[in-house]
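tool_call: predict_structure(chain=1)
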Amino acid sequence: MAFQSSEQAQAYWRENISLMLKLLVIWFAVSFGAGILLVDVLNQIPLFGFKLGFWFAQQGSIYTFVVLIFVYVTKMNALDRKYNVHEE
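tool_result:
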């Protein structure tokens, strides 16, 4: 990775950290919020024969994490191209 200037490097890392924090907040909200804090409210909603709160605690947070990995890869590839630090 070769940045043209230190300002460009700082901007790249600022956007990278911002993206990571946003995705971690989403993951925390789904795993802790939906799986623990809101479990009683979500258990009132059935999903394929299971209570929604139980589903989020057991499966939903894992699925969300996997989706967030793909979102991160896609966004980071776009960010790398934006700052011209991508690999061929």
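agent: Residues 18-82 form one domain. Proceeding to next step.
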